[in-house]
Amino acid sequence: MVEPQRYSERSDLLRVQVSKSVNHFWDPFDERYINFAIPFDVTQALIIDPIQIDELQTSVAAKLSKADQIKLGNDIMHFYLSQLLHGEQAALIVSSNLSQTLLDPGIQEFAANQATEEARHVSAFSKYISIRFGSPMPMVKPMQDFVCELLSLDAIDKKIAGMQLLIEGLAVGVFKIFGKYAVDPVLKRLFQLVLIDESHHHQFGKTWAEYEVGDLDPSVRNELEDWTVKSFLGAIVHLISPTEKADIYQKYNFTAQEMQVAMHELFTPEKSKQMFVDKETFLYYLMKSLSDSGILTRRSAKTLGFMVDFDELAATPDDALETWVPEDVISELKKINEKKQILKSL
Questions:
Q1: What is the pLDDT of residues 302-311, one digit of tens each?
Q2: How far apart are CA 318 and CA 308, in angstroms?
Q3: Are 182 and 162 in contact (CB under 8 A)?
Q4: Residue 214: exposed, middle, or buried by beta-carbon count in 10 A (0-12, 13-18, 19+)?
C-alpha cells in the first residue's frame, strides 16, 4: 500500500460515482431528510402491501383472523428488515475490508466512501426497527456464513462479485420493489433514500464486471460463476425460505413444514420461474444483474433451470437494469444539501 508507484496508478473508473456522492448525502438523524416521528400503528395496519408478503397469499394464512394476518405480515417484515439491517452491516464490513485490500487508489476511495454510506444505512434501519418493533431479529445462519466467507476470501473477483453484484443486486431489487409497495410513509422514505446509495454501489459491480469479467481466464471465470451460483443458493434462497421463519409461524400455531407445503401449492414451477423474469419481483433484478454482468450464463442452467427461465431472461432489453432512482427525491436532497451549505457559509 505504501509503494511509491502505487499512488500514481489511479484509474478514473469510478471517479464520477465518487463525485456524485455529495449530491445524494442524507442524514438519518436529521428530520429534513427523514422524519421517524411520523406515527404508524403496526398492530392495526400492515407496513407494506400484503401482495409483497408471500405467506399472506397462502391457504394457511387464510385461516387466520384479520388481526392475526396483520400481525403475521408485520412479523415477517420485521424479519426481512432485520436481515436488511444485518446485510447493511455486512456491506459496511466488506466494503471497509475492500478499501484495505484494493490497490487502485481510485477504487479504494470508492470502497471507503461506500463504507461511510453503509454506516448510515445501519443507523437508519436500526432506528426504524427500534421505533416500530423494538429490536432486530438475529441474522440467518446461511447469510452469516456467506459474509464470513467473503471476508476470508483472498480472491478479489469473488469478493466484488459477492458484495457488489450478489448482495447489492439483491438490495437494489428489494429497495425498489418494497419502496414501491410500502404503506408506512417512513418506511417508503427510508427505502427511497437507501436505494439511491445502493444503486451507486451496485454500479461499481457492473462497471467492474464490464472491464474485468470478459478478460478473465475461462477457467477462472467459470469458477467465479459456479461460486456465485453456489452462494446464491446457499444464502439468498435460504433467506426467503419458510425454514428460517419457523419461530414466527409458531406464534400463529402452524409450522414451517405446513407453510412450505402451502407455498408449493401457491408457487408452481412455472410461477416460480416467472418470479425471475417479472419486473415486479426483487429476484428479477438480482438475476438480470448477474446475467448482464457476464457472471451468470447458460452454464448454470443445469443448476438453476428449475428456477430461472434463461431464454426469457436473455430476451429482456439490456437497459432493464437502469438505476430506477426517484429523481424527485434526488432533487430534494440536492436542495437540502445546497441550503445547508449556504447556511454554513453565512
A1: 787 767 777 7
A2: 17
A3: no
A4: exposed
Q: Which three cell numbers stand for residue 4?
A: 511509491
10 sits in the region (left: phi over 0; alpha: psi -120 to 50; else beta) called beta
pTM (predicted TM-score)? 0.90
Q: How far is the C-alpha of 257 from the C-alpha of 242, rounded, in Å?
A: 8
Write the CATH number for 236. Answer: 1.10.620.20
Residue 233: all three cell numbers together: 443458493
Structural domain for 94, as ranges: 4-345
Contact of 161 with 295, CB cutoff 8 Å: yes
* Tally of domains within the chain: 1
Distance CA(63)–CA(215), nearest Å, equals: 55
Q: What are the pLDDT digits (tens) for 76-115?
A: 999 999 999 999 999 999 999 989 888 889 889 999 999 9
User: Do residues 63 and 56 touch, judged by C-beta distance below 8 A?
Assistant: no
- Round to whole Å and give the CA distance between 119 and 89: 7
- Segments in the chain forming alpha helices (H): 15-20, 59-62, 66-101, 105-132, 141-152, 156-160, 168-181, 185-212, 218-231, 237-239, 246-250, 256-266, 269-274, 282-292, 301-304, 310-315, 327-345
Task: Please provide residue 30's backbone torsions phi and psi, each rounded to the nearest 5 degrees.
Answer: -120, 115
